[in-house]
Every structure is written in structure tokens, then in C-alpha cells.
Amino acid sequence: MLPDMKRTTVELSDDLDARVRHEAERRGMTVSAWTREAIEAHLSDQGRRRCLTIGAGQSGEDAVAARIHDMLGREWSDRSQKAP
User: Fold this and answer.
1) Which of helix, strand or coil describes residue 66?
2) pLDDT (0 to 100) of residue 59
3) Position 22 in a domain
4) Based on the structure, what is the number of domains in the chain?
5) Within a domain: residue 83?
6) Fewer CB within 10 Å, N side or C side of the chain?
7) Are 34 and 23 in contact (CB under 8 A)?
8) Residues 6 or more apart from 35 whose CB is under 8 A from it?
9) What tens-digit pLDDT sequence spans the chain (84 residues)?
10) Which domain covers residue 22, as residue numbers?
11) Distance, CA of 6 to CA of 54 (rounded, Å)
């Protein structure tokens, strides 16, 4: 064990364990080293959680909120014309 390290036990499903072991082997690392690296990468944003949905609704169009009724009206009109 490396100096100043704490031993931690985690329970993984068989599938996740196999994936971790495969990735560690692929990188030529021990499972412990790969796990430390993965945890460090996950926590690297100074312990702050990132909101993964930021920007998810960006359309690239200006003034969408002001034009939403027109946009939705066109969408529904297009769909109703395609309906059998």
C-alpha cells in the first residue's frame, strides 16, 4: 500500500467489476490505481457538482421565448398535415 493511503472496500456488480478490471488491464494499471484515478477525475472540479443539463435547451436561435407560440404553431400545423 502507498504511504498515507486508506484502504476502502466497495461492492460492485459482476458486470461493473469486469468493466473496471478490463479498463485497468487495458491501460496497464492496477485496479487500485485505476480506481484512484477515476475517483480523482470525478472529484477534480474542486468538489463542486456540475449541472450536466446546463445548456441542454439551447437552440441557437435568438428570442425563442418571444416567438415560442409561432414556433409551436408551425410545428403542430406541420404534424397535422402529415397525420393520416
Assistant:
1) helix
2) 65
3) yes
4) 1
5) no
6) C
7) yes
8) 20, 24
9) 567 889 999 999 999 999 999 999 999 999 999 999 998 888 876 556 666 666 666 666 667 667 777 777 777 776 666 655
10) 10-48
11) 35
